């Protein structure tokens, strides 16, 4: 089993370790269930669940909803392409005034 191989490698090389999460698969399964449960539920930005992982389609849909709900202040801008040739979208929050801007990178 791969777990025993990793433990043997660490012991052989005298590398100390500590198990922080006993069952990572259980956490992944819970996360997957949450993703399925919340997929497609957001009808507006108020419905978007921020405490769970979202796939790229869900994030892009949320961005589109945010733009649609706030057309006077929010716009979506494509700043390039990913390695997979997908558009790199960012949201621009602006009242149109000529003011300094800031960049917020999240993920």
From TrEMBL:
Names of required cofactors: Zn(2+)
Alphabetical list of SUPFAM superfamilies matching this protein: Protease propeptides/inhibitors, Zn-dependent exopeptidases
Superkingdom assignment: Eukaryota
UniProt feature coiled coil, ranges: none
Keywords assigned: Carboxypeptidase, Disulfide bond, Hydrolase, Metal-binding, Metalloprotease, Protease, Signal, Zinc
Domain Peptidase M14, residue spans: 52-107
Name listed for the protein in its UniProt record: Carboxypeptidase A1
Organism: Culex pipiens
Organism phylogeny: Eukaryota, Metazoa, Ecdysozoa, Arthropoda, Hexapoda
């Amino acid at each position: 089993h791969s777990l025993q191989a990793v433990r043997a490698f660490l012991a052989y090389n005298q590398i100390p370790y500590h198990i922080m999460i006993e069952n990572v698969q259980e956490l992944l399964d819970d996360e997957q269930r949450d993703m399925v449960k919340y997929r497609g539920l957001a009808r507006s930005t108020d419905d978007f669940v921020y405490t769970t992982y979202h796939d790229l389609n869900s994030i892009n849909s949320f961005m589109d909803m945010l733009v649609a709900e706030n057309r006077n202040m929010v716009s979506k801008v494509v700043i390039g392409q990913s390695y997979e040739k997908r558009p790199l979208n960012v949201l621009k929050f602006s009242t149109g005034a000529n003011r300094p801007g800031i960049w917020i990178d999240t993920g």
